[in-house]
Write a structure and sequence with these properties.
The protein is an alpha/beta fold. The protein contains 14 helices and eleven strands. A hairpin with a 2-residue loop joins strand 6 and strand 7. Helix 1 packs across helix 8, helix 2 packs across helix 11 and helix 9 packs parallel to helix 12.
Length: 339
């Protein structure tokens, strides 16, 4: 799409994104990758997993995002003694009426902060699966829809292992992206220190709700209008298929080449078709962020690491050789021909 209509739409989209980033910057210093990831998740309608050591503003970022959306926000602190009913709700016996009533849990909100998600046991993790995938919760014999829109923004600490549980692959696959939170630069950390100079700590800056549902609808419509060439769609599917050592598919030739290079000894399990869908959505939104009405191969390559890093299960050989998911994904991208 070109012409005055496209220019007006692009200008409106850019203005909305700039206002969102400006509001978040009043509380968050730097962390552009995290901010773009959070906005991408909202536009795509997907869940996001934030991983980083303590003190990198993961919780503050999610709370700030809730403030600029004006959506109903709930924070759930995951602990080893948490029960599924603490998350979804339960049936309560009402003595006066002589019947059970439903007491809904904190998951009945638009935006859920699942803080330290990997501290909850398997029963709690399984209770979250239905909510994340089907946007509904079953309490007793009845099923209740969750509010729309519904997002889960989860955090986990990668360095503490005592009292934590490895997230199951079925749950990880339901996250649109996994964002790694990096340490700030020296200049950014100086700004953080100066903001926190008060003995009582920094007072949180008030934020305006610049990303209300109607504004979010504008961004989603703009993302849906981004053009994706059929060859690029095949490229995305080939990337996901090439991560599967035992599955033939569009990337079969690429898989044989990668196998010769020894890549597949580092991969135990590859990405599911959900990865192809997520890559398609995120590549379009990345093009939107860049002010383009079409997707390029660079958009796909930029979107690939956060989309794939939690979906590819590495082998023991990868750990022994000091390779992480991002290193394996980088090698994988070098094998798949660019259209």
């Amino acid at each position: 799409m070109t012409g005055p209509a496209h220019d007006q739409s692009a200008a409106e989209t850019a203005a909305i994104l700039d206002s969102c980033r400006s509001e978040l910057a009043r509380r968050i210093v730097g962390q552009a990758e995290m901010v773009n990831g959070l906005l991408t998740a909202l536009i795509a309608g997907g869940h996001i997993l934030l991983e980083g050591v303590p003190g990198l503003a993961k919780t503050l970022a999610v709370k700030s995002l809730a403030a600029i959306t004006g959506l109903l926000f709930k924070r759930i602190q995951f602990t080893p003694d948490l029960l599924p009913a603490d998350l979804t709700g339960t049936l309560v016996w009402e003595q006066a009426s002589g019947a059970f009533s439903v007491r809904r849990g904190p998951v009945f909100a638009n935006l859920i902060l699942a803080d330290e998600l990997n501290r909850a046991p398997a029963k709690v993790q399984s209770a979250l699966l239905e909510a994340m995938e089907e946007k509904q919760v079953t309490i007793g014999e009845a099923t209740y829809p969750l509010p729309s829109p519904f997002f889960v923004l989860a955090t986990q600490n990668p360095i503490e292992h005592e009292g934590t549980y490895t997230l199951p692959e079925a749950e990880l696959d339901r996250f649109l992206m996994k964002i790694l939170i990096r340490y700030p630069s020296i200049e950014e950390e100086i700004q953080i220190v100066r903001r926190a100079a008060s003995p009582d700590g920094p007072a949180p800056a008030p934020l305006s709700a610049v990303l209300k549902p109607e504004t979010l609808a504008v961004l989603r419509a703009a993302a849906s209008s981004v053009f994706v060439d059929a060859r690029l769609a095949a490229y995305m599917v080939s990337i996901a298929a090439a991560s599967r050592p035992l599955a033939p598919g569009p990337g079969a030739d690429t898989m044989e080449k990668a196998a010769r290079e020894g890549l597949y000894r580092y991969i135990a399990f590859g990405a599911s078709p959900r990865a192809s869908i997520a890559l398609y959505r995120c590549a379009r939104i990345r093009a939107l962020f860049e002010g383009r009405s079409f997707v390029t191969p660079e958009d796909v390559k930029t979107a690939a690491p956060p989309v794939l890093r939690h979906r590819i299960v590495l082998s023991y050989e990868a750990e022994a050789d000091g390779l992480d998911q991002d290193a394996v994904i980088s090698r994988l991208l070098s094998f798949v021909p660019i259209p």
